[in-house]
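subagent[fold] <- orchestrator: predict structure for attached chain, return tokens only, no commentary.
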Amino acid sequence: FSDGTTTPPSDIDIPDHDKQFLGSSLIAVGNTLVLANYLIAIILGVLTYLNRKHKVIRCSQPMFLYMVLLGCMTSTSTIYFMGIDDDQAGMSDSEAIDFASKYCMYVPAFYSLGFIFSFSALFAKITRIAKIFGNKKLQRVTITAKDMMMPIVGLMAVDILLLILWGASDEGSLQWVRTNDLEIKGYPIKSTGMCSAENPWPFLAPIICLHFGVLIKSSPIPARTHRTERIPAHITNTNLANPRTTQSLRLGRQPTRNNPPSSRSSLTA
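subagent[fold] -> orchestrator:
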């Protein structure tokens, strides 16, 4: 032996390995918040359906309200997947790491899809307001359901394509990795586990640009509408009458009783 004797050295006690798991209490708090958000969204959805014939709900277009609620629920689901780690009873270390790796890509996927799904509905509604109130020639403007759905479908298609390419990439796909923070004589004392990738930026950067692009693109729209029409974007029903009525709206004045509307169309925000 290394001490020059034939007597084997005493056994070395292997130190405890602190893997710094999230803990069941913290995971329970996160899951409770997810369920609470689900419950609130479902209640609001039910109330929207029960009052779907109300003037405010009808002009707000229930379909887009449902989309916003569904998008919020999808984004909130990210919290649940963030609570999954390699703390799995009855599994070896390698099996637990493989199990946690399966859910790593769920975190950006659910958050990204929820953001696009909810915000694209708001983006489509704001764009509709801008098209109607930006009609300087005072001509009849027809905006169909297809026109409203095109930006939503387009944004969702781009986002889904980026997420599929990200998940299929060997270098970019997120995998569960456990890194030793402290070792003693080759034995890990403290380690940290997280979802990581060698190079996720070729896919993450376009998604970030897509999200910020939607925000930046839609930000000037309410401002322009407010400056031009003096009508906030949250007003959901405006009666557009003859050209004199529209001119009055542009000047920030109400139409007089001597000029009753000759035709009527509904604008929904």
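orchestrator: received. Logging for downstream: Confidence is low (pLDDT under 50) at residues 228-269. Residues 106-133 form the longest helix (28 residues).
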